[in-house]
Amino acid sequence: MDHFDQIMPLNSSATEVAGFITALHLNQTNTIKDMLCEIQNALEQQIRSSGHNLFVDRFAEYNVIFEQLQECGWDNVHFISPDFHELHLKAVDESSREHILKVWIPDKFPNEGPKFECDLPQEFQYRWLPDDSLHNMFFVFQETLNMFAEFWNNMDELDKNTWILEPETTSRKDCKRRIALAPGVSLLLVVNPVMPTAIPTCHYLGPERIVEPVRAKFNKNIHK
Q1: pTM for the model
Q2: Which terminus of the chain has a smaller tally of CB atoms within 10 A, N or C?
Q3: Residue 187 burial by CB count (10 A; 0-12/13-18/19+): exposed, middle or buried?
Q4: 43 CB contacts (<8 Å, ≥6 apart)?
């Protein structure tokens, strides 16, 4: 696989991945699934050759992760760290925007729930229950994206059709935009991600003598 290092980064020697399989061998795989199967096979060989409980425990841990990634779908796996303790799952919303759910796997997984992080305008909340799975969490994440589809559509329109001063680099969690209106005058918009079509909070920035007529015109036309 030409770009497998995006899924499984190499260590500093660039000869081993996760300490037991060579980069050369992984380069011969064609898909993410093939790569993970190769790693699983290598673990089985280590167990047979060493017989140490350490490898048995590690194999059991990795096997649980493999099975849960299988449920999520390999096409949705964006990144796996060498120690398998950090995973990135990729979801695509109805407007073809990509969103990454970063997951950190604890040592006692799946009995202990993972930590997670994502780029949403509101905190993503998920309560890990007994016998829970990454697939369930990923499904809830995908459903949550639908809640913000209209918000992101509106923000994309703002970014496309106005001169955005701040933030210089936007992210999917940003609810604010500072827009240039005239020399020395700008408008800070704060959009409610849950009610994106509601009138946003507006703060005019600049000399009052210039801002006042702009504000008055906006207030006059706001309900038209």
Answers
A1: 0.75
A2: C
A3: buried
A4: 20, 55, 58, 59, 62
